[in-house]
Amino acid sequence: MVQTSGQPSLTFPARSSMQDIRFIREHPDTVRKAIADKFVTLDLDEVLAADRAVLELRQQVETLQAERNANAKLVPKASAEDRPALIGKGKELGVQLAELEPQLREQEEALRALLLRVPNVPHESAPVGPSDDDNAELRREGQLPSFDFEPLDHVDLLALQGWSDPERVARVSGSRSYLLRGEAARLELAILTFALDFLAERGMEPLSTTALVRPETLTATGHFPGGEDQVYRLEGEELMLAGTSEVPINSLYAGEILGESDLPLAFAGFSAAFRSEAGSAGRDVRGLIRVHEFRKVEQYVICRPEDGMAWFERILANAEGILQALELPYRVVQNSTGDMGLGKHLMMDIETWVPSEEKYRETHSCSYLTDWQARRTGLRFKGADGKPQFAHTLNNTGIASPRILVPFLENHQQADGTVRIPAALQPYLGGKAVIGQPRR
RNA sequence: GGGGGGUUGGCCGAGUGGUUGAAGGCAGCAGUCUUGAAAACUGCAGUAGGGCAACCUACCGGGGGUUCGAAUCCCUCACCCUCCGCCA
Hints:
single chain; alpha+beta; 12 helices; elongated; RNA-binding
């Protein structure tokens, strides 16, 4: 399956122009501020100029097309002697169009490329700043563990119990790979299954998805342009490996016009997730924090605009509920404008306590994209007025493994090297309250 | 891997190169009728862009070509169905 010629075909049409060009025209200062606050490198005047150029050229082309169409309609009615003149005129118009149309296409493509880089406007509550140093802690939940023994970090704990095999797996799969043995393998599956059940009980439809996606789905979510080097691509295939099931789920209804009664669509998507981690060499190389392939239960919501904020709170509460059930201490932080990414309107991370590092580490990320992503994807519904409008989309982690195992193992370790299993999880581990062999 | 068939508006489904943006049906909306509902009847009704009013332009899987003119002809790619082979 090799792409031989032409452009890759879109399985769904790119309905609209990313960030709404009309909104940009009418609120250039708002967009300028968003660009500045998000520290995006983009000249809005360049966008506006490209927009004007396209409009102007398009008007020329459309005028010529109108002439051509009118002329062509006269041909069948014309007398034999008038006919050659009309056909001649048609040919002449055709020549002019043949020159202008490719120019128009080119300029439209240039504009489109620029619009793909226009950010969503951040929520007014978002702290303004360039990086995650500017994130604001909103609250802390749960009790930090206090050990009356010398706690191990998760790497040593896994080694102690024979639950990992880092040297061998590196031989097989290279760095940033992982392998879990025995009870740890069952623990991973138990946590994922628990999270899926937890979300299903709260109205999220379970979805098992493939991570294999077409490139345009990654443009639709907003990962492209910009995140290309984070994504694995398959040699000789027009397919890539998504870093989250947000990608396939977002495109599931691409290009469709849904009925208002079809919304909300709320999913708990389960899939493998792949990230090249280009540019993070040397960071978190030890243990399970940062690996190339992991498993994830992802919350994804497509809803009416007026329900967006309520859904944000709901999927944030879902994630917190999972951590509470797993009896893990965490904090919620609101991401700064510079840390939240191009398409996001509002973003909060949940960071879970990692005892060995004595700090909170990101385990969940909750995002509200308003219509920014839906515009790229062509996700519309017919509202009460009968007019199609763009839906709003949100996503949040449900649980991501093996990263979640880091705080889980470390917080729940006991003096004898065994690991305590919270009550909510025990049914998923055959009723066990403790896993691992007591040391010595 | 090889051979057939297909891809038309929210859905189903017609479509001879020349008012076909696209028949017809269903669903939808409004109205008539009715105590109310159903049925029946009448009307409205694709999406996007530009003026934003009349109107104009584009779009019948994607891209390209032929033509004065293409949903209709040609090439190409993708996807779906199906038969054969191969593998499980």
